Amino acid sequence: MKNSKDITIYDIAKELQISAATVSRGLNDHPAIKKQTREKIHETARRMGYQQNIFASNLRKQKTNTIGVIVPHLNSYFTSTVIAGIEKIANQSGYNLIISQSLESVRKERSNVDTMFNSRVDGLLVSLASDTEDIEHFQFILQKEIPLIFYDRVIEAPNCTCITIDNFQAGYSATQHLLEQGCRRVVHVAGNLRSSVYEGRHSGYKQALQDFGLDYDPSLVLFPDLRDVNPGNTAQDILAMDTLPDGLFCVSDTQAAAIISELQRADIKVPQQIAVVGFNNDLLSRVVEPALSTIHYPGQEMGEIAARTLIRQLNNESQDEQNTIVIKHHLIKRASSLRE
Q1: Topology at the third CATH level for domain 9-52
Q2: Of the CATH numbers 3.20.20.70, 1.20.1250.20, 3.40.50.2300, 3.30.457.10, which one belongs to the domain with range 167-297?
Q3: pTM to 2 decimals?
Q4: Over the stretch 203-219, which tens digit does the pLDDT of each residue have?
Q5: Cβ distance 9 to 42 under 8 Å?
């Protein structure tokens, strides 16, 4: 029968006929223990199958070296780039990650926060669910003085750092570009305006129309469920309009690419009849035909800045940390919007 007993430092000490204290120091590479002895301790520990209980050790130090990350959903190119940036900095600094997704539900988000708290994370990085309207469910995190940083989808609050782009300017730039290409009837495929991200882009869209002397028409703003597995349904709403638009600004590249496909299926030429701009600069934007104009949203950079800022707070190095950090975006002009 297999022996399932956990190997302890006392078992290693007995095997090597040395004290448990010496084994403990050797496993932690204490300089007081000779190099030859340290190597022998490590070799014996590996051979016997010893596992260090890092979690218990960290609890004694009141630190788990773990960062919690809550995202709206994991099946997104933008999210994957943010997590890559977070992981890069966290690992360089000796931290591990616990990642969970809210699935765009504030109820699930509350559950995620409880799980992170019970997992004793040292700090928390959060991109809010689209239906989150306040941060009441984060208050006990703040009361326990656990550093909390919101990124991408944020709500500004005291003692919380927010990391985002200028969504108003991004929405303005995308719409301005379409108007400069001669578009005068621009549809905006928007997100939930309760989210600061989508509200900012929508406001930028409105302002650009105003600056070009055009009236804002609410009927040209569509609010699809961005979780819809068939985003091409939005294209059918556009095709059903009495007067077709000549421009389209989408808050996601996924929506934009799906709509382009449906428009082409209906013999609508892009960009000649309808010019299209997306958002995020997903890989998809470069492979769709025609290639998709989009707003480059620097996900990896955002993740790196978020992790670096959090770790500075954990190390008490952030006395002068600004409450809101705005990362630069830029418009990438490709064939889907450029008219000759």
Answers
A1: 434 Repressor (Amino-terminal Domain) (1.10.260)
A2: 3.40.50.2300
A3: 0.80
A4: 999 999 999 999 999 99
A5: no
